[in-house]
Amino acid sequence: MKKLLRFIRPQTPSLLLAALIAGISLSMSVGLLGTSAWLISMASTRPPILILEVAIVSVRFFGLGRGVVRYFARIREHEAALNIQTKIRQSIYSVMESKMPSELIGMQRGKILQQVVTDSEAIQDLWLRVALPWMAALVSGASGVGIIFWLDHAFGILAGLIFLGAMWIVPFVSIATSTRSSQRATEEELFDGFIQACDSIEESLIFGSNKEVQSQLMQTQEKISINESKLASVGGLSEVIHHIFLGSTITLAIISAAHAYANAKIPGVNIAVIVLLPLAIYDGLPTVFAAFSQVSTLIARADALSPYLEQTRTEEIPDDIERGEITLQMKNLLPQTVEGRLAPITAEASPGRPLIIQGRSGCGKSSIINAILGFTPYTGEITRISQSSISVMLQSDHLFATSIRENLKIGRPEVSDREIMQILEVVELAHLIHEMPEGLDTHIGPYGFNLSGGEKQRLKLARVLLRHTSIYLLDEPFEFLDAQMAQRIALKIERIFVTKTLLIVSHLPLRLGDNSNNLHLTA
Fold first, then answer.
1. Does some domain include residue 338?
2. Which residue, 41, 141, 312, 446, shows the most beta carbons closer than 10 Å to its own?
3. Domain, as residue range, for 473
4. Torsion angle, alpha carbons of 116, 121, 122, 126, to 10
């Protein structure tokens, strides 16, 4: 919670102002009921119309004004809440982006998704549904009790004490009887189960396990329903206690007003005002008290986000790298993922001298690229490089369910169709695209299902080559291709990108120019 307060503190003035404006809006409801009660009572005595004119205008003012004031309160509180939520999400994304994949191993995707989406949205209820409404109710309650005190001093003090008791006792009971339970953990389980079900839907249908998956999701949903029922019970208890306080206040108001009228301390027209005002004073409290039953859960969500509410530091990149001196050097490099299986390597890639890393599957080729990118812990030394200076093709690169053109423009939105076709010539896809009826506008479908493995691989390679950067890291760019095609495309890339730094990982033997560096890994 301390870390969360760091995000709330800059918005505190806006939140307090929103609470005050909301309190004024609720106070207008108090004023509306009070003036209406007085107006009806006084009208029954048939006084001259001028006596009622002020009350009539007041009823109109309070009736129309409370909605307008509430609108401005909503604007202020939601502006502050959204600013806080934006800062929280920025922090979450920054921390997540700075983590290495090795740090994310074992984390459920459902849990990550819940933290980024659900938790960051839910904790804003701490001020939108709990703190601000409670403060607004306190302001309006004070105004209502003030009116009662002005009309009847003795009962005003008693009504104030009862109201303060309700404002503190009911939230305390709501929080004490609520439970953090396993609601959040169960929601994480549901999120993760749903994601896995989506990922494995084809396999589930093929092997007939889809009903089992659905059953597991339904069981998890049932747990959530049970937890929500418990929370609803707590909300019901809070409302019962709230009505006890309200009923007690009205009962005492009737007794006190009757006693004061009998002793000629108040005029008869004020009896209705004193008796009815508690209805307005307590009017906004049921939803507030129900919200307090969620406080424990909301605090649990805030605690879960705590590791992601850190201020990240931006690592400074050396000036020589930013100026374009882009030689990639590795000295005694050994990724931790292949310790004991691979000897430390020392190698270099520079413009005109591409580095080709070859070896059998599983020997650690991809781990080297992951170490260069900072995805994998390693020992040894690597030239530090600005991420904006690197274009990367990973084995797990994704094709989106959109057109070929849009897939290729993801890395460089301003690229022209002419440049696209030139790169497609390099990867030997131009002829295929020309034969398609819709050309670059051809929709390739989810995961590129209507393309062969080699065509998808070359499309991913073309997307990377379209970018303008100093260094290109290509992890198995020729997977699914035959050796002859791989050799042809590799030679084209070497010739065209002679001023760039190239590192190519390949299980296929490649023969480039005399200036290329070949590193064969054995494990």
1. yes
2. 141
3. 319-520
4. 130
